[in-house]
Write a structure and sequence with these properties.
Residues 269-296 form a coiled coil. Keywords: Coiled coil. By secondary structure, the protein is of the alpha+beta class. The protein folds into 3 domains: 8-95, no CATH class; 124-278, no CATH class; 306-378. The termini are far apart. Strands 3-7-8-9 form a 4-stranded mixed sheet, covered by helices on one side. A 3-stranded antiparallel sheet has the order 4-5-6. Residues 1-5 have low confidence and may be disordered. Helices cover 45% and strands 15% of the residues. Strand 8 and strand 9 (246-249) form a beta hairpin.
Amino acid sequence: MAEIHKKEQVFTRNQLYNLVWSTPVSKILEEYAISNTGFKNLCKKHDVPLPPNGHWQKLKHNKEVNVIPLSSSDKNFDNITLPKRLEGEESLNNVSELNLLIREIKNDKNLPLTVPDKLNKPVKEVISTKKHLKLTRKAKWPYDVDEPKDGVLSLAVSDDLVERGLIFGDTFIKLLRCRGHEVKNIRNHKYSNYNGLRYIIHGEYFVLRLREIDKRVMEKSEYSWQTAKYYPTGKLCLKDENYPRHEWTDVKTIKLEDRLAAIVAYLEISAKRKTKERIENEIRWAENERRRKIEEELKQRREKDLNQFKAVISNSSRWQKSMDLRNYILAVEKNARERNQFTDELKNWLQWIKDKADWYDPLIEKEDELFKGIDRDSI
């Protein structure tokens, strides 16, 4: 489908400088199809200074203003183009980010946005795909045919649509590379589902598949029950398998080939969003990890302190019990002597119980062969 191109006005650097110092940017944006940010970036790119904030208000009230002179430059800044805004067309300041990017891509005359009728100097991925398709068609077991190192397009179409799919894929890859993106074949990844041709946009990996839309028809089988059969429709579809999934399909008024700018714009914005989300997730994860470590450290310190305190309580209790036991031993010995009942048997018993008191006392913990392995705190 042919595109309607806007009329453009061509400026020299001096003419652009005179424009921005004679007309407020808000008025310029009413005449030209460019956003406020886009216009400021254009001036910055060509080293054209813009009036500072408050410049036009000072002029309105006849106050003195400071005009920044145009600096000299060795660069060639001729043929600076601004697209004229069509009558009734919405200001670009109100246009979505996606539509702004679509316009930017469409206005870049260096990009291969027109899909040719036949392959012309195809990229290596398309060449290998074409060869691979021929081999798989001849093979008895197509899945046993090794995939070439350059990778193959994910192309699931009927024979009538193969050439069109290859031409579209070729133009699409060339367009992505012109926009500074990569197309790479991933091999021998430890996770097999990561293998295959990947489209790397702003550092984000995309899985894109070209397929033909099938028409599902319920037909009566030879056994009299209904079975689903699928027939090719000739409609080409490009699917973005990344979450959230998105697809572009032929419709009556526009073919997939005419949506290249929209597809690339969507993928670029999606990539930036994914990067932003990943960075936010990494920051959030790092913060959660920091808090978890602090909590874990606090928990360990708390447990250590508590265990030490419990040990002190236990030892003090054992010490007190051992002191009570020794006082009891003294009382028994004193009572026996006062009654003249101190026998050898009692003497041996007193020595035995003194040894047990020393074994139990946390300040002594004398070794005892018979009590070896017994937990003193359990008594």
